[in-house]
Amino acid sequence: MRLSTRSHYGLKAMFDLAQNYGSGPIPLKTVAERQNLSDHYLEQLIAMLRKAGLVKSVRGAQGGYVLAREPSAINVGDIIRALEGPIAPVYCVSEKDPGSCDEADYCITRTVWARVRDGFTAVCDSISLADMCREAKESHKR
Amino acid sequence: MRLSTRSHYGLKAMFDLAQNYGSGPIPLKTVAERQNLSDHYLEQLIAMLRKAGLVKSVRGAQGGYVLAREPSAINVGDIIRALEGPIAPVYCVSEKDPGSCDEADYCITRTVWARVRDGFTAVCDSISLADMCREAKESHKR
DNA sequence: GGATATCATAGCATAACACTCGGGTATTGT
DNA sequence: ACAATACCCGAGTGTTATGCTATGATATCC
Question: Which residues of A14-33 are buried (b: 16+ CB within 10 A; e: fewer)?
Answer without folding.
Answer: bbbbbbbbeeebbebeebbe
